[in-house]
Design goal:
Elements (H helix, E strand, L loop, with lengths): L6 H15 L4 E5 L6 E8 L4 E7 L8 H15 L7 E5 L37 E5 L10 H13 L12 E3 L2 E3 L7 H19 L5 H17 L9 E2 L9 E3 L5 E3 L6 E2 L2 H9 L5 H10 L4 H23 L4 H10 L3
Antiparallel strand pairs: 1-2, 2-3, 3-5, 4-5, 6-7, 8-11, 9-10
Length: 332
């Protein structure tokens, strides 16, 4: 089914296609998107295809697509997991600054993708992101195992510390990434506390709940003390099953990242939170890099709390019960 691409987006996309494919003519057909962005398959007269998403009015903050592009480029540079190549990105109201350089490694350059950041300076133009099209397919024997091993390889890519050169987003919510030398401090100050403040301000938790959260935050140095031994790994950052895209041929790619350098178990905790991952995925990961018993006993619910708080803030009080259950599993 054809879809109308907003004029301000179409102009910038046409220019980007001209640079990458030598044609500015395209047609767009609708594909499934998320709750933030509209999405389309871009078909050119040359036979080339691409994937485009753009901001729905009022749903995407400035900088969101640039942040996603930076995460995708960092994941691509790791050469561990398959991700779509970034062709071009634009964020209103004007050109976003230079791509972030990942702490301890650097963001990729070149690699066949359009290196120039597309810009559209009209203030009413929504942001957009143009990506490589990954033809969808079905899982095959070994898909889950290969993805588990690839995730372990991704986590072997290390940063100098915990964080990211720029703040980014988790869903449509801001995700602060100012670096911290110690992991418990980063998890408390950059992850749990900002989402908890937002949820409390929204009236999601009563006084007793807030006291329980306070006890957890006070004990976080103790509860996460052993995690520092693993170092700061490059994370996908939002690893639920909906962000796994199986391609034609059965290879799995990861999409919609919210990357930073953190404890590797965060990705595993998110993957377990809502289900959808085959047991073979987790087995392959643990074969490549074993996980300590303290993960399931202590750290998993603490990491899942972040994503549950995000869901409270994005989708409402229907997630309060599961958030408090995770708080109880964390021992408070």
């Amino acid at each position: 089914m054809s879809v109308v691409v907003p004029a301000g987006v179409r102009e910038g996309v046409a220019a980007a296609l001209g640079r990458s494919f030598g044609t500015a003519d395209f047609r767009a057909s609708a594909v499934g998107g998320g709750c933030i962005a509209a999405a389309a398959r871009i078909e050119m007269g040359t036979g080339d295809v691409a994937f485009l998403k753009w901001a729905e009015p009022g749903r995407a903050a400035p900088g969101m697509f640039a942040a996603e592009a930076a995460s995708l480029k960092a994941l691509a540079a790791a050469r561990a997991v398959r991700v779509p190549a970034v062709l071009a990105v634009s964020d209103p109201p004007a050109t976003v600054g230079a791509d972030p350089v990942a702490a301890g490694g650097g963001a990729p350059e070149g690699g066949g993708e359009e290196s120039a950041r597309a810009s559209h300076r009209r203030g009413d133009a929504p942001g957009w992101l143009l990506l490589e099209w990954l033809e969808p397919g079905r899982p095959s024997a070994g898909t889950a195992e290969r993805l588990g091993g690839a995730l372990a390889a991704l986590h072997r890519v290390r940063g100098a510390g915990y964080g990211w050169p720029e703040d980014n987003f988790i869903g449509s919510l801001p995700q602060p990434n100012r670096p911290a030398a110690e992991w418990p401090a980063f998890w408390r100050e950059r992850r749990l506390e900002p989402q908890l403040r937002r949820a409390v301000d929204g009236g999601a938790f009563d006084v007793g709940d807030r006291r329980r959260f306070g006890r957890l935050l006070d004990r976080l140095d103790e509860l996460l003390a052993g995690a520092g031994a693993d170092g700061a790994s490059l994370l996908h950052g939002d690893l639920w099953s909906g962000n796994v895209h199986v391609m034609a041929g059965g290879e799995a790619a990861l999409v919609d990242p919210a990357s930073y350098y953190g404890h590797r178990e965060v990705d595993l905790a998110m993957a377990e939170l809502f289900g959808g991952f085959d047991a073979a995925f987790f087995h392959a990961y643990r074969e490549a890099w074993p996980v300590e018993p303290a993960y399931a006993a202590v750290r998993r619910p603490i990491y899942q709390l972040y994503y549950l708080l995000v869901h409270v803030n994005l989708f409402g009080r229907g997630y309060v019960g599961s958030t408090l259950a995770a708080l109880g599993a964390a021992g408070v």
